[in-house]
Write a structure and sequence with these properties.
Blueprint lengths: L1 E2 L5 H8 L3 H21 L13 H8 L24 H8 L4 E5 L4 E3 L11 H4 L5 H9 L3 E4 H7 L4 E6 L17 E2 L6 E4 L9 H4 L4 E5 L10 H14 L3 E5 L10 E4 L14 E3 L4 H10 L15 E4 L23 H10 L19 E4 L7 E4 L15 E6 L13 H5 L10 H18 L13 H8 L3 H7 L4 H6 L2 H11 L10
Helix pairs in contact: 2-6, 9-10
InterPro entries: NamZ (IPR008302), NamZ_C (IPR048503), NamZ_N (IPR048502)
Protein name: Lipoprotein
Pfam families: NamZ_C, NamZ_N
Length: about 500
């Protein structure tokens, strides 16, 4: 496999040798531009930071805006996603018939490179150009789809393959996606979440190379990873090269949770990795191929080439705010941050906010009380058939969720009582189970029926990658005891993944 690295040190040296006078003027103009952007709410939607913690992020996620809305710039530090590094992969597409595996998240800066040029923006924009520096701040929003950018550069894109939620990202979780034709370009769109989840021979007929560019959230059961697996499997079986254009992992600082056991493998978990793997899809693509996890003959691994174009200047611990929602029920930074923990409630009777204005930002139930805030549940485009539809939840809405539409006079007090959780928080699952147990004790003397917590135990086990977590919660194990039970497997995984990392590890 082939990994393309960052620009050479010589380029950096040339920049550093610019005259002191021009450098000072450039820095001053950048500073003024950044201040202006913050005041006018102009943004690249990319946030980087050398530290982490609720205090550092409070200004970013307080009263969460929807992803894709304009947000204040939080740092002058910028990185370049793989898709924007045209000089690294356009030569591999020259004269080739290309299929894109993309959705609405495959966005690039419309000013990241000239249509007639394959030179990367950091090479093209000289540091001694004041106009270029100012323009870089103002126009670096990622607002152009990769499909349009490649067509502008005369790439022969002959088909599109779309994952769960569809090419436009507007289908609900688990909702089947039909194949179609892109109205703008007339290019056929083949669904990989309908009649098949794996590219068929007909879909791949006449294809020379596949370009994969989808934003992930760094959680094993988020299905874009499984789509990547099947794309690699089908491509390598038919001698088709694959290029993965890498993007940051918004949960990249975490490596946690049980490692999946093979007997619990499914489309929401196909690989022996933990719930939070701390890797990008580019790194995972290398691991899938390197560990030979594909269901193909060993000789087939030599039939095709995997190329990963890394994110330039990316730090795994940096905070990254996505330019667009990766799926309908993850509308903002907070939902993405809570997703690794709250998704486990999909195997229980607890609502995580599907069918409300706070998907993956609350936990609630019609009878078992999680908070004083009353939240109505109704079907919508993102959740056509939500859990507890047409009921009112007694919910806890996590900190920094927008409280403006909440019912009840104490909405804001309830909403902002606690800080949001991070990573995989087992205590939240145990607390919810305890609330059901206490509720059932109270109503046991009455004629009311008890409420079942694990309503979909098999699905919960698939999310966990084992059945041990469910049994540990039922047995009353503490968070520390549960977390200790998977440390040995986590250590093995951390060691195995080292060979495939493209960015500095957090260990």
């Amino acid at each position: 496999m082939k990994v393309l690295t960052s620009v050479t040190l010589s380029k950096v040296f040339r920049r550093l040798t610019s005259s002191a006078f021009i450098a000072v003027l450039s820095l001053a103009l950048i500073s003024l531009s950044l201040n202006g952007c913050a005041q006018q709410s102009l943004s690249t939607h990319v946030y980087t930071s050398d530290t982490d913690g609720p205090a550092n992020h409070s200004t970013l996620i307080n009263k969460q805006p929807a992803l894709g809305t304009k947000q204040p710039v939080s740092s002058t530090k910028q990185f370049t996603v793989g898709a924007e590094r045209y000089s690294k992969y356009l030569p591999l597409l020259a004269g080739k018939r290309v299929s894109l595996v993309v959705n609405q998240s495959a966005l690039v800066s419309s000013h990241s490179a000239l249509p007639s040029s394959t030179v990367e923006p950091e090479e093209r924009e000289s540091s001694n150009s004041l106009a270029a520096q100012k323009n870089k701040i103002k126009t670096s929003q990622r607002n152009q789809h990769l499909l349009d950018a490649l067509l502008q550069r005369s790439v022969n894109v002959v088909s599109i393959m779309s994952p769960e939620h569809g090419f436009r990202g507007d289908k609900g979780a688990g909702e089947k996606v039909d194949s179609n034709i892109d109205a703008k370009t007339g290019i056929p769109i083949h669904s990989l979440y309908g009649a098949t989840k794996k590219p068929t021979p007909d879909m791949l007929d006449g294809i020379d190379v596949i370009v994969f560019d989808i934003q992930d959230v760094g959680v094993r059961f988020y299905t874009y990873l499984s789509t990547l697996h099947y794309v690699l499997e089908a491509a390598f079986a038919r001698n088709i090269d694959v290029i993965v254009l890498d993007r940051p992992n918004p949960n990249g600082r975490y490596v946690d949770g049980p490692v999946l056991q093979s007997e619990f493998s499914s489309f929401i978990g196909m690989h022996p990795i933990p719930v939070l793997h701390g890797m990008t899809l580019g790194e995972l693509a290398q691991m899938i191929v390197g560990e030979q996890w594909l269901d193909i003959d060993a000789s087939s691994y030599d039939n095709a080439q995997l190329t990963v174009v890394p994110v330039q200047d990316y730090q795994r611990t940096a905070h990254y705010s996505l330019p667009v929602a990766p799926s309908p029920n993850l509308p903002n930074d907070l939902s993405i941050r809570l997703y690794p923990t709250l998704c486990f409630f999909e195997g229980t009777d607890v609502s995580i906010g599907r069918g409300t204005d706070f998907p993956f930002q609350l936990i609630g139930h019609p009878f078992v009380e999680f908070g004083k805030t009353k939240i109505p549940v109704n079907a919508n485009n993102a959740a056509p058939h939500p859990k507890h539809e047409n009921t009112l939840l007694s919910a806890h809405v996590f900190s920094y969720a927008d409280p403006t539409i909440l019912e009840g006079s104490d909405s804001k007090q309830t909403t902002h009582k606690r800080s949001p959780i991070s990573g995989l928080d087992i205590a939240t699952l145990i607390d919810a189970y305890s609330r059901f147990s206490e509720y059932n004790k109270v109503i046991s003397a009455s004629d009311a029926s008890e409420e079942t917590f694990f309503t979909r135990p098999d699905f919960f086990d698939k999310l966990a990658g084992n059945d041990a977590l469910r049994y540990q919660i039922q047995a009353g194990k503490t968070p520390a005891e549960i977390r200790q039970s998977w440390q040995k497997d986590l250590s093995k995984f951390r060691e195995k993944r080292k060979a495939y990392l493209l960015y500095e590890d957090t260990d």
